[in-house]
Structure formats: structure tokens, C-alpha cells
Amino acid sequence: MTGIGQPETEGNGRGYLAERGWRSWAFTLDHKRVGAMYLWTTIFFFLVGGVFALLLRLELLSPQAKYFGNHAYNVFFTLHGSMMIFLFIIPAIPSGLGNFFIPLQLGARDVAFPRLNIASYWVFAAGFLVVIGSLVAPMDTGWTFYTPYSAKSAAAVTTLSLGIFLLGMSSILTGLNFIVTIHKLRAPGMTWHRMPLFLWSMYATSIIQVIATPVVGVTFLLLAAERVFGVGFFDPSKGGDPVLFQHFFWFYSHPVVYVMILPAMGIVSEVIPVFSRKPIFGYKAIAYSSMAIALGGFLVWGHHMFTSGMSPLANAIFSLMTFFVAVPTAVKVFNWTATLYRGSITFEAPMLYALTFIFLFIVGGLTGPFLGALATNVQLHDTYFVVAHFHYTMMGGTVMGFFAGLHYWFPKMTGRMLNEKVARAAWALIFVGFNVTFFTMFIVGVRGMPRRYAEYLPKFQLENVISTAGSAVLALGILVMCWNLLQGLRKGAPASANPWRALSLEWRAASPPATENFDEVPVVTEWPYGYGTPKA
Amino acid sequence: MSGHTDEHADPAVAFEAAKLGVWTFLATEVLLFGALFTAYTVFRMKYPEMFRVEHAKLDRVLGAANTVVLITSSLMVVLGVDAIKRGKARLLEAYFGATIFLASVFLCVKYIEWTKEFHHGNFPGTNLFFSLYFMLTGLHGIHVLFGMGVLSYVIVLSRRGRLSEAWYTPAEMSGLYWHFVDLVWIYLFPLLYLVG
Amino acid sequence: MAHGTGNPRRTGIAVFVALLLLTAVTVLVSYVDLGLWNVVVALLIASAKASLVALFFMHLKGESRLVWGFALFPIVFLSLILIGTLADTMLR
User: Same domain, yes or no, for C10 and C46?
Assistant: First the structure.
């Protein structure tokens, strides 16, 4: 991690970035540095995972598996999925941006347990090293690791399980740290209802991380034990139950999609009012809906298992519950839209990404009930409709929210401004490329193209070629964005403390913030969304 | 586990933060064991007869003895924390030392039991009951080991004169964790040894 | 943190004795065949013991509502995973 964010020129070596040398990073107790290390790591894995996605799209140019073959294809989609999920999308916003901005938005000096914070980064690092180690016999199970195949596959499932156990541990420690930080280290006057909505969403996220992650941790331990000791929980020949694996897996992995999406929703709730110069509409509704999503997310895991042979009663209950969890999500979308209404909207890059989030998330969200409904699910299960749905929510939602956050907070994190023109061009490429890539998947999905096969019926080829072309545009857009971020880091114009005229506390610190964040402890007297008033 | 909060200006806030941190961590632990308890419930309801037959193969006297050992170790922690609250660091070290001793007695008994099971040809892969038995007691054993490490760390801190009646956060927090380890065993003992 | 009244050492020892007694009771009961009630009794006694440990040894008794919340809410989720899984496996 040496050299990251190190200033190129004298005069910019300010704030938390002043100290140099790898030790100052590896042993740092500064939440901002820990956050920056997470950001670099997760963005790296985002790009690697993206390369695997491109390889998948390349293979799908042809209805036969003629470029890489079936096994390589299976490995590629497993690596794409596991890297994106475990090494990018789960840690990126919470551990990256969250670490950086939770204490700043609270008006705190640091997180509650700074040593635990850097320790959890190194546990994370150990985790991804083990995951990389498992590449000696790369996984071909898909990112869900379903038994019985995962218990028998010749791939390094045991190694990977332990790696993911470590990643989960890091995630738990981070969540724990944030919960305590938000409870105990709020600046004077920072009541719950004066907290920025990003903090509410991060609090809800942390609850899920702390409660759900241990279950998947044990699940992976049991999977490893099944392979090593012949423990038979998931093995029907020993009286075990492979569907039990799915219960445990989805008890974690459904709530965890809210670990992925809630922080992005928090960022959108920050960006929308700033760039429409209007107070956020329905503050409490958005705040409480975060909590409702976090808790409701625990009631619906069975909707991933409608075709696994679950009992009819469980199927019906989980289907019904799934409709309920759509309500708080819709509450958020309505409130953002109402915030935009008659605002003085400007279209800087963070706002473009935030609006893209809303648009794509509506598409992804509304296709959710089709999958949550028992009857249509049986038709659409494991088709490209599912792939399209979760890429609209996860990439169209979370990743766009992440990009919004990156662009919004870039001046604060680095002390430099981005080139706005390039940022908008990159956004345009990403927006077009994304929709071309994934909307076609809805169409082939409804027509019955199953996911996770290197081969497909020739009648789907046109759509697949279009989709692959879209993925090239998307990749180009992301490259341009990354190039712009690096350029901004190296030679962007110096940023003022508050370039967006935002009201939350992080903008009262310098850009980049000093190691101790604030010169004096800020005192909070009102909520952070008083836009459109004479003050802002 | 509890991290370090001594860099906070206000020790009262640091104490409260550490306490909340430990309780949150214990929430995680509940779910960690919870998944295994769920597996236990599922399979016990599915195969009651098999559990009845298999659980009789465990030695419930040794299990009960180990329960007494752990309960006593918890009392030692209570007395140790009480000692440091009265400023008696040496007494804390003695009580926590006793806890660590009892913990190793617990692990020795566990070792004897496991050896017996292996001797009788019962392995983690033998059947679902023994899978559960070995996974649950194994995971619990790892927690005992970890707890011994944490308690030793507190003793080291105390030997260095870092603990006093004014600041005894690590003793208190390690105690919370140790009681939780005891609490898990309180459920494991009847579920595995008594009712199977 | 010396919550509750009286001498914490005396409370500790009283709880300790109660825990030993309950352990003896649960072991003795296990030798009597009560059918399904064996499980119920064993779990009730275990929960009584767990409550004693939590309330007095972990002094949950004098804690704030916040700590109570964090002590109890994992149990809600534990019952969730139990109920959800059993709703499937028992009725399949």
C-alpha cells in the first residue's frame, strides 16, 4: 500500500496524507487511511472481477463453447461472482467509504476501536490471500458453492471456504466497530435524527453484518469439515440435507444483498439533496426504512430456493414476505423523487451517478417481485432474467451508488478536484454500456435462456452479441473513469473544504482532512439537510 | 476482541464503548453457534431414534464434571473482576490464573472424551449425531482456547501494573467473554449428553 | 459496575451454588424417562442457568436498555433461522 495517495507536489502533502512510508500505512490507526486502503484493494478486485466478466461475454459471442471451453467458463463465472461479491461489493462502500466518512460525519476523532479497525483490514488481506491461494485449483461451483457439488468438486473448495471465513470475520469486526462508533462517539448535539442518512444506512448495514455473517462463516466451516472429516450435514447419503446448506447460505446471503445496497442508498440520500439544493424529503421515512430493510431482509431468504424442493408452506411464506420487503425500498425511491421535485438540480458527476442509481434501481427493483412471486419464479428461476435483475440492482444500484460516492467525496479524500468533463463522458459510456449489456438479458431470460452455461441455443445469439458489444462500451467507460480518477489524484486542481456547498460535518474538515479530523470538536445544532435556506 | 479504547479522552465513554463492543461481538457468537443449533434441531426432529441411541454413548458423568469445572471457572472470573475493582491486582491475577487452570482441566477432560470416542470408532463422519457432537464441542473448545489467551493477556497487563480500580476495562471485558463461553456450554451439555 | 445490592462476592457465590444445584437436578432428571418432557425440562433448566449467568455474572441486571437490546436481539434472529428452516424441513 505504499505510495498510495502520496502527494506528487510539495504543498499538497497535507492532512492525513502527510506522513510517508509503508509503515505509516500498514500500522495506521487513522480510519481515513484504513478506508483508503480498503478502497484501493476493493477497486483492484473490481477491475479483476470485471476482466472475468468480459471473458464470459467473449465466450458468449458464440452459441458453442468455442473460445475457452466449458470448465474454464465455469471457473470464470465463479471467480467473477466471488470476487465481485466478497472482495468488492460487500467491503467497498462500508469498509472503504464508510470507514472514511462515518467518523467525519459524526464529528468524531476516529472510530471506536482504531486498532480493531486496522486489524480487520489485515484479516481481510489474509482472507483475500487465501482466496487467491485457492486459485491453484480454481473453483467451478458458482459463487453460491451449493452442495453436494461443492462437497465433491476437485477444486480447492476447502481453501476458499477458509478464505471466505476470514473475509467474513473482517466484515463482522468492521460492522461491530461502526455500531459502537455510531452509538458512542457522536459529536455534542448529534442526535439520531440529526445524523446524515448515510450513517443510518451504515448502521443498518452493520447490524446485518454482525448478525448474518457468522451464519455463513459456520456454513463454510461445515462445508470444509464435510470435505476434510466427512461430516455429513449436507450429504444425503449420511442422512444430511443439501437444502440445509442453502438455508444457511441464504440466511446470510439474502440479508447481505442489503449490506451491498443500503450503503449505496445512503450515498444517494446524501448526494440528491446537495445537488438539488433542497432539504431531503421524508428524512425519517428514509432513515427508518433503512432499518426496516435490514430487519425485513432476514425474513425472505427462502425466495432463492423456490425450486429446491422446499415445503409448500415455506415457499408461500417466503414469497409473501418478499413482497413486504419491497415496501421500504419503494419508500426510499419515492422520497428521493420528491426531493428532486422543483429542486435547483445541477448535473455534476456525483449527481449523474445518483440519478442513474435511482433509474436503474427502479428497473432492478420492479423486476424483483416477478422473481419473488412463487409462480413466475418457477418459470424464471436460473434464467438470464435473474442475472439481469441482480446486475440492475447490484451494478446499476450499488456500483452506481459507489461511483456517486467516489466522485462526491473525491475532493474531500484527496484534496483535489476531478475533471468534470471527462467524468461526465465516462458516465455516459457506462450508462449506455450497462443498459445495452444487461437489458438484453431480461429479454433472453424471459425467452428461457438458462444462466451459467457456456453454450446456448443459436436463436439467442443476436441478443448475446448485442450484450457483449454493450459490455465493451461499459468496460471502456469504466477505464475512462479510472483514468480520470488517477489523473485527478495526480494533478487535479486543489479542492476547497466544501466544493459542493454541502452541510454535513465532513465538509467542515479540511480537504484532505487532518489526522485528527477537526481542529475543535464540532457542535451540532440542526439536521444536515437545510438546503435552499438563506444559509446554504 | 474488545479492541483498545484507551486512546479515548474520556475513560467512562471508553468503558461503555468497550462493553457495547463486547456485547455486539457476543451477538455474533450467538448466531455462530446458532447455525449449529439449527442443524441440531433439524436433525434431531428428523431422526429422534438415532439421537436417543447415539447420545447414550457419551459419558454424562464426565460431561457433568466438566460443567462444574466451567461454572467454577466463571465464579473465579467474577471474584477476579471484583478484586481488581477493589484495587487488588495480585488477587485478580490469582483468580484469573485459577480460571485458566480450570479451563485447561476442561480441555483435558474433553481430550479424554474425544480419545474415548475415537477408540470406540466414533468419528466426526460416523453419523449425524457425532458430526454435531464433534463440531459443537470442537467450536466450543476453540472458544475456550481463545478465552485462555485473552485471560492470560489480562494477567500480563495486570503484572505490568496497567490495571487498577480506576481502569479495569480489559478484566471486565474478558470476563464477559468467558461467561459467554460458559453459557454456551450450559446449553451444549444437556443437548448432547442428557437428551441427545 | 457493582450493580444490585449487597456484597458482589456473596451474590457470586450464591449464584454459583444455584448453578451447581441446577446442574445436579438436570443430570438426575435425565435418568428418568419422561418422553418428550426430558427435552423440555433440560432446556428450561439450561435457560434458567443461562439467565443466572447473564443476569448476575455478566451483570445484565443493572445494564442500560441499549445493552439489553444487544443482548436480546440475536435471540430474535436465532429463532428466525430456526423457524424458517423448520418450516421447510418439517413440512417437506
Answer: yes
Class of the A32-508 domain?
mainly alpha
Q: How far apart are CA A35 and CA A121, in angstroms?
A: 9
Residue C8 and residue A166: Cα distance in Å, rounded?
Answer: 39
AA identity, residue A301: W
Q: Are residues C51 and C17 in the same domain?
A: yes
Report pLDDT digits (tens) over A380-406.
999 999 999 999 999 999 999 999 999
Give chain C's domain count: 2
Rounded distance, CA B126 to CA A229, Å?
10
What is the complex's ipTM, to 2 decimals?
0.93
- Please give the model's pTM, rounded to 2 decimal places: 0.94
pLDDT digits (tens, 9 = 90+) for A326-365: 999 999 999 999 999 999 999 999 999 999 999 999 999 9
Q: Is A438:A396 a contact under the CB 8 Å cutoff?
A: yes
Residue-level pLDDT at B9: 60
DSSP 3-state helix, strand, coil percentages of chain A (rounded to 5)? 70, 0, 30
Residues contacting residue B169 through CB under 8 Å, at least 6 positions apart: B2, B5, B6, B11, B14, B15, B18
Residue ranges covered by each domain of chain B: 11-194
Of the partner residues A112, A113, A229, the one whose CB lies closest to the CB of residue B125? A229
pLDDT at B135 > cutoff 70 = yes
Smallest Cα distance from A251 to chain B, Å: 10
Residue C2 corresponds to which cell in the numbers above?
457493582
CB contact under 8 A, A113 and B28: no
**Contact criterion met (CB < 8 Å) for C58 and B30:** no
Would the CB atoms of B125 and A232 count as touching at under 8 Å? yes
Chain A CB within 8 Å of residue B49 CB = no
> Which residues of chain B have a CB within 8 Å of the CB of A255?
none
Alpha-carbon torsion A168, A169, A172, A173, what sign? Answer: negative
